[in-house]
């Protein structure tokens, strides 16, 4: 078990009747707001109007950056940072999903950098300062509303990289499950797999001596919550209980708590980001396909006990199975959940991916020749996982 420091400073307003607090929370930070949003879903659900009215009623001046792409582009970040500089923006308000929030984080930092945001993303230049960020979340998935990281794509170089800095932690996030009623069955499925993957990939399947058992128990309960409520949210999009459980599970999967006592080494995420970088696919769908193949690839006598523990504690499978049998059953049940219950397509080729770039993608996923995780992987291991997933 590793020593750790835990701090999460994001204030959460959760529930149906909280938006009236948005203006009062923002006001101490300034009056000139950049409202950032995606391709228009917030207009279709009436949230755009509500947010604008709330800000206006508190005397705040609103500027806008619309059209943030899923897998947000660095060029959009630069556009937002230019508005912030020109209009002397005090606060950024992201209304949307992980892409909108991530883009807003990068804008917040680039506001104080005299150059291309890509320099900050690649680490060529440090993040020195950031505008305060507020969020109104509209999809349960990434946890970006309660963490200090963002992921930005550069389509010119086929790169998708993380920008992580404590300065990017949102000040306040508004989580109203009713804002997620309109999320499609497909995006609900993808978001749910993303939540699960944050738990598996970052913490549950980790190469650590003496992990904290309490945290494993909490992870199993969060996983069970997603397994229970994702199918309900898909069948009944307006089910508040299901949407609320998914929303809160998403935030807690990646807000740092589940990482206490262990070292985060998100193997499948690093591999998936390469697929998104080259083929612009939906993050959660890429994870859904890659994760079970990664599990199969790393299964051996050293990894089997944790897979079996997962199977017994999450799916109530017979504990008398051998470790290897239990592990195989765990992978089979996970596949059944993702591809049958959630209905996601099971091959990368279904998403328009081909094998042309596998070698380049595998090399990029491990810049130092080794990718850390439950099992350390080399580029040839990663290429094999891509081929199994095709
Ligand atoms: O753009 P709009 O019109 O808003 O539509 C979006 C988009 O098409 C739609 N959507 C969102 N809320 C909706 C809605 N449609 C109807 N009703 C609503 N209420 O859903 C689509 C996907 O949105 P997006 O923001 O891309 O989804 P998500 O939250 O899954 O974010 C994915 C991005 O986050 C990154 C991913 O790599 C990807 O780029 N990640 C960020 C992380 C972080 N910051 O900590 C960690 C994650 O592992 C992940 O890598
Ligand atoms: Zn993710």
From TrEMBL:
Keyword Oxidoreductase (UniProt): yes
Pfam family, one: ADH_Fe_C
Keywords for this protein: Oxidoreductase
Domain called Fe-containing alcohol dehydrogenase-like C-terminal: residue spans: 188-389
Database matches in SUPFAM superfamilies: Dehydroquinate synthase-like
InterPro entries: ADH_Fe/GldA, ADH_Fe_C, BDH-like
Gene Ontology molecular function, alphabetical: oxidoreductase activity
Segments forming domain Alcohol dehydrogenase iron-type/glycerol dehydrogenase GldA: 10-177
Lineage: Bacteria, Bacillati, Bacillota, Negativicutes, Selenomonadales
Source organism per UniProt: Sporomusa silvacetica DSM 10669
CDD domains: BDH
Name of protein: NADH-dependent butanol dehydrogenase A
EC number from the UniProt entry: 1.1.1.-
EC primary class: oxidoreductase
Residues spanning the signal sequence: none
């Amino acid at each position: 078990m590793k020593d750790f420091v835990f701090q999460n400073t994001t204030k959460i307003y959760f529930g149906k009747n909280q938006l009236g607090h948005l203006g009062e929370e923002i006001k101490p930070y300034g009056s000139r707001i950049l409202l950032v949003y995606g391709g228009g879903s917030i207009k279709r659900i009436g949230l755009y109007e509500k947010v604008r009215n709330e800000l206006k009623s508190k005397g705040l001046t609103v500027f806008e950056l619309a059209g943030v792409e899923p897998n947000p582009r660095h060029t959009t970040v630069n556009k937002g940072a230019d508005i912030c500089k020109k209009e002397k923006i005090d606060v950024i308000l992201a209304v949307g999903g992980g892409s909108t929030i991530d883009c807003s984080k990068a804008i917040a930092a680039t506001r104080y950098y005299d150059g291309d945001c890509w320099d900050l993303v690649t680490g060529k230049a440090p993040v020195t300062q950031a505008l305060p960020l507020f969020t109104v979340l509209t999809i349960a998935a990434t946890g970006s509303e309660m963490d200090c990281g963002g992921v930005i794509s550069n389509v010119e170089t086929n790169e998708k990289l993380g920008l992580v800095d404590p300065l990017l932690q949102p000040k306040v996030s508004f989580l109203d499950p009713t804002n997620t009623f309109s999320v499609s069955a497909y995006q609900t499925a993808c978001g749910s797999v993303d939540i699960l993957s944050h738990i598996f990939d970052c913490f549950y399947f980790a190469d650590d001596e003496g992990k904290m058992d309490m945290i494993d128990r909490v992870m199993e309960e969060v996983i069970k919550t997603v397994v229970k409520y994702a199918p309900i949210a898909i069948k009944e999009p307006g089910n508040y209980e299901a949407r609320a459980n998914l929303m809160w599970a998403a935030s807690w999967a990646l807000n740092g708590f589940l990482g206490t006592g262990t070292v985060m080494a998100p193997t499948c995420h690093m591999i998936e980001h390469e697929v998104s970088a080259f083929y612009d696919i939906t993050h959660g769908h890429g994870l859904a396909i890659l994760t079970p193949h990664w599990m199969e690839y790393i299964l051996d006598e050293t990894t089997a006990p944790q897979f079996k523990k997962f199977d017994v504690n999450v799916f109530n499978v017979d504990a008398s199975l051998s470790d290897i049998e239990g592990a195989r059953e765990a992978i089979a049940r996970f596949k059944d959940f993702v591809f049958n219950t959630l209905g996601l397509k099971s091959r990368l080729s279904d998403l328009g991916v081909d094998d042309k770039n596998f070698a380049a993608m595998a090399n990029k996923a491990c810049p130092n020749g080794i990718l850390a995780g439950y099992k350390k992987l080399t580029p040839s291991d990663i290429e094999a996982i891509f081929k199994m997933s095709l």
